[in-house]
Design goal:
The protein is an alpha/beta fold. The chain is built from nine helices and 15 strands. The chain binds S-adenosylmethionine (SAM).
């Protein structure tokens, strides 16, 4: 239990292991086989993602940071001070520090599935911002999440950077945004970063960096499953692949089986043919018009939108109706 003036309180709403097992097994029975991108993120996966954000090939993070730097004053003036910032998929991003410094919120609720990484980063932030109440929530943001009661009655500001919205299929993206609008309440703001459609070469390079960090990140999902669900994937028997699917408007990421093999997944023998692919991520790209339509259908109005000079990335300030 936390007292009202307590600066730090952790809420562990991580889905039960049985739910994760059932989700992984059901994905392995599909054709093509599928794994949710949330399984990328154990502590090592979160560190690898941080490494990706620093790569030359990975333009989204530096482009989004440039948009923050250019427009933070306007964002602050529009939102106002003294709010509660709720970050979906918080990781350890630099972006939140800029936002916290500019907005001076009363409370910050980072939500993430990667528990150890979340706790470590939330504690560091609480030390660095001693006047800020920090209430980390370990949860799957694709499910409904009750926010900590300490934030009741505060003006809520959602923060969803990094184009993580692109990991949802378009209809689940709408459902997710509609749920966020409900959580923030009428008049609540959502600051969201969304990757734009662009030429295939730039997109594919961002997910096939020459250093091979994205490949390690993709393969780490198997190491994560072996550790938490006791599966026996051999990561060396799979290879990273990422392509832009122009007709869907998304990057699709796979692990291709290099050999004919059998994997024990929670007591089931799953067969992979040589060359068969396990689908690990979709990352949808949206033109500003497409994203405007998605946000509108989920109960948000666009208050402001900013694009960089190359039209690579969009930052949108939405307001729940
Ligand atoms: C692409 S990273 C973005 C990190 C950071 N917000 C940024 O913009 O750089 C996605 C983050 O969301 C978290 N995440 C992914 N799927 C999730 C889910 N279903 N529920 C909660 N957190 C999730 C990951 O652990 C990771 O920290």
């Amino acid at each position: 239990m936390s007292t009202p003036d307590q600066q730090f309180a952790f809420y562990d709403l991580h889905p039960p292991m049985d739910d994760m097992t059932a989700e992984v097994c059901s994905g392995m029975r599909e054709s093509p086989k599928k794994l949710s991108p949330k399984f990328f993120y154990d502590e090592r996966g979160s560190q690898l993602f941080e490494a990706i954000t620093r790569l030359d090939a990975y333009y989204p993070t530096r482009t989004e940071l440039g948009l923050f730097d250019a427009h933070l004053e306007e964002i602050t003036q529009t939102i106002g001070l003294d709010s509660c910032v709720v970050e979906y998929g918080s990781g350890s991003s630099l972006k939140i520090r800029k936002l916290l410094q500019a907005l001076s919120p009363s409370a910050y609720v980072p939500i993430d599935i990667s528990k150890d990484f979340l706790l470590h980063n939330a504690r560091t932030l609480a030390e660095d911002f001693p006047a800020l109440h920090v209430f980390p929530v370990c949860a799957d943001f694709s499910q409904a999440i009750a926010l900590p009661p300490q934030t009741d009655g505060m003006h809520r500001v959602g923060f969803f950077p990094g184009s993580s919205i692109g990991n949802f299929e378009p209809e689940p993206a709408r459902t997710f945004l509609a749920r966020v609008a409900g959580t923030l309440g009428s008049g609540g703001h959502l600051l969201i970063g969304v990757d734009c459609k662009k030429d295939t070469k730039t997109l594919e390079l961002a997910y096939n960096d020459p250093e091979g960090v994205t490949a390690q990140f993709n393969l780490n999902a198997l190491v994560h499953l072996n550790r938490v669900l006791n599966t026996d994937f051999d990561p060396q028997a799979f290879a990273h692949e990422a392509h832009y699917n122009e007709s869907y408007g998304c990057i699709q990421m796979f692990l291709r089986s290099l050999v004919d093999q059998r994997v024990d997944v929670c007591g089931e023998h799953i067969h992979f043919c040589a060359g068969e692919r396990l689908h690990t991520e979709n990352s949808y790209k949206y033109t500003p018009a497409e994203f405007g339509q998605l946000a509108g259908s989920a109960g948000f109005d666009i208050q402001r939108q900013w694009l960089d000079d190359s039209n690579y990335f969009g930052l949108y300030l939405l307001r729940a109706r």
